[in-house]
Amino acid sequence: MKQILLLSAILSVLSGCGKPPADQYMKQAADAEKAGLWSVALDNYQKLVNDHPESGQAETAMFSIAAIQHNNLQNFQAAVDGYKAYLSRYPDGKRGPTALFLVAFLYHNELKNLDSAGFYYKRFLSKYPGNEMATSAQFELQNLGKSPDELLPKPVVAEKPSAKPEKKHPVKKK
Questions:
Q1: Rounded CA gap, 147 and 49, in Å?
Q2: Could you tell me which of 20, 57, 113, 162 has the fewest CB atoms within 10 Å of its CB?
Q3: 89-95 contacts: CB < 8 A, separation 24 or more?
Q4: How many H helices and E strands in the chain?
Q5: CA-atom Rg of the chain in angstroms
Q6: How far apart are CA 44 and CA 156, in angstroms?
Q7: What residue segments make up the domains of the chain, in order of their start?
């Protein structure tokens, strides 16, 4: 009986050891990104997060998942969901301000959900008032729903010359 319990304990320990280390997942994901293999990169980052949630690299992997969805796949809803998952798991993470700003920005400019955009811009400004992106967040919040034409300065129209022909003064010959 003791042998069976010992064997069972050894097997359970060994079964957890079959996972590649976080560094290996990270390297495979980075190599896949360089090659433009987005689904392979996403898969490796997700495996890293699932298999090594306490690893310091899991935070980077979670942010990278959202960034690939955003920048490379242009799957904006998946990007928003990814940035929100990052913020939920790492509320004080080093990329927290960027993730929160991007949630608001994507709601505003890509998903056209002005209510959510306003909510997240306000949340960003409340949580990170001194952040370097605060000015941009304030600008975006003040201009929710405005078209780019409404934001651009109006062109200065030069006055048209008068329609009257200029009088030429005769040149006097001496």
A1: 39
A2: 162
A3: 89/59, 89/62, 90/59, 90/62, 93/59, 93/63, 94/59, 95/59, 95/63
A4: 9, 0
A5: 29
A6: 54
A7: 21-82, 95-144
